[in-house]
Amino acid sequence: MTTHASIQTQLPGPKAGELLERRHNIVPNAVSYGIPTFAAKAEGAKVTDVDGNTFIDFAGAIGTINVGHCHPTVKAALHDQVDQYIHTGFNVMMYEPYIELAEKLAALAPGLHDKKVLLQNSGAEAVENAVKIARKHTGRQAVVTFENGFHGRTLMTMSMTSKVKPYKFGFGPFAPEVYKAPFPYPYRKPEGMTEEEYNLFMIEEFKKFLLTEVAPESIAAVVMEPVQGEGGFIVPEKSFVQAVKGLCEEHGILFVADEIQTGFGRTGKYFAIDHYEVTPDLITVSKSLGAGTPISGVIGRQEVMDAAGAGELGGTYSGNPLGCRAAIAAIEVIESEGLNERAVHIGNVVKDRFHQLSEDLDCIGEIRGLGAMVAVEIVEDRDTKAPDKLLTQKIISEAQHAGLLVLGAGLYGNVIRFLMPLVITEEELDEGLSILETAIKSCSTPQHV
Which domains does the chain have, with CATH numbers? Predict the structure, then answer.
């Protein structure tokens, strides 16, 4: 069998060790890292470090590389753009790639209504602008997000984020008029409650939230991740999402789908919200849209997007030409290579492998997700469902040192998430899963001894 992962040195290796020392001398400790080495080359679903160690990538730069590292179509677009101009500032002299990308996003986004598109730099910036647009359009102030949700690290998006450590601790006071509603966590539903009963209960809890926490007529927007990312890839029931959207419509609240991590093929569709048969008023996009370049956007109803006046939205590098060209190329790759369909296949392979593994290992609590946005929750045992953060960290570390880039997530830090490039080959996928399977077995206790 072909070996795609290849670890030739200890981690960090000699060159990485020197760079790591320089890094600690100059970069704040608050900027964390998952593996103690430095990239030298990346292509497809593999990354090679400065010491010649090659890793299979199940992290995808935290979900930004759905079309793979250095895809030839993306590289060609970037080289072509660099030869023409790098940046003029869209609010100084406009350029066609911004318009072309906006048109493509509007055409792909759900809903037959007229749409307009604002381009920005990062996911957090997109969410911030969605809030600004919603407030401008509705004349209201309050913003509702959900428990376990993550929306960014700026003041507003940090305020909208649920997890305290490491994202919020010591960084307050936070932005006012931000409220967090309860969100379904089916794996941790009350004992004895059926899935249907739990879902109805959560819908009622959201209705109660509108009575006890914030009045509907004060709310500008409800912002929801169709699948919670940092929260642990938690997938709500379709009826819950539809009920929230229905209440938004009833009270004149804008429904915002945060598709930063879920978008552009990850769940088997361009937008994860399509799984719920719901049409958002605004959609935020970033990460894999840019295939590794910084770009983000807000897609929305024309009348909503036009609420703000001239000069009220924008930014120096917003919708920069390189990001636009990379995004146009990425969309072309998703379409031409059938990556939405590929995501469904990858997700099925991952789930099947872990369902088989769970028969022997009591530490695998739940396997969940949509498309290739799959996660495994690690617990002390399946009876108590007690989160096992320490075991999760050990598994990830061992897998990384064996040549697999993989990430954790979850409110309790006990979730292993999969964000591999969708162009990953069958051999690479199989080998990566085998590395992780070996790590889990070596770090945990079998169910039957």
Answer: 14-57+338-443 (3.90.1150.10), 73-336 (3.40.640.10)
